[in-house]
From TrEMBL:
EC primary class: lyase
Annotated source species: Pseudoalteromonas holothuriae
NCBIfam families attached to this UniProt entry: MGSA, PRK05234.1
Residue span, MGS-like domain: 6-152
Name of the protein described by the UniProt record: Methylglyoxal synthase
Example GO biological process: methylglyoxal biosynthetic process
Gene responsible for this protein: mgsA
Family under the similarity heading: Belongs to the methylglyoxal synthase family.
Function, as annotated: Catalyzes the formation of methylglyoxal from dihydroxyacetone phosphate.
Length: 152
């Protein structure tokens, strides 16, 4: 598939997601990086967003809870180019009833070439990157061209 170049803006739309066993870690991470996060737009699954807002005072657009469709809502925003970064503290040792949704969310992040952190140290590296507050170019699948060739 051919690709096109798209620019991520200086002010990023960041999705914040955490499994139950990792909500405290994500809450603490957000508190630590509050000074950076407040300059960006934050989105989160429902319970996670509520915990982050109450603890940090950051403004978070809360979607549905993950198992109720919040992971899929974030995935849709990724596919529509509305999310520029995913911070997803997932618990690899706990079985999750919505594992297919989680896998789909991570697949969409890979397809649409957005930065993803699945643990604290990776999130630290992303948030402290020199380009965090700059425009960043990324290659995306040229889905419109792909569809056009299928219709010929």
């Amino acid at each position: 598939m051919q690709t096109i170049i798209q620019t991520l803006p200086k002010q990023k739309n960041i999705a914040l997601v955490a499994h139950d066993g990792k909500k405290t870690a994500l809450k603490n991470w957000c508190f630590t990086h509050k000074s950076i996060l407040h300059t960006h737009n934050l989105y989160a699954t429902g319970t996670t967003g509520l915990v982050i807002e109450k603890t940090t005072g950051l403004c978070v657009e809360k979607l549905l809870s993950g198992p109720m469709g919040g992971d899929q809502q974030i995935g849709a925003k990724i596919a529509e180019h509305q999310i520029h970064m995913l911070i997803f503290f997932w618990d690899p040792l706990a079985s999750q009833p919505h594992d297919p949704d989680v896998k789909a969310l991570l697949r969409l992040a890979a397809v649409w070439n957005i930065p993803v952190a699945c643990n604290e140290v990776t999130a630290d590296i992303l948030i402290s990157s020199q380009v965090m507050d700059q425009e960043v170019s990324r290659n995306l699948p040229d889905y419109q061209s792909y569809l056009a060739t299928r219709l010929d």
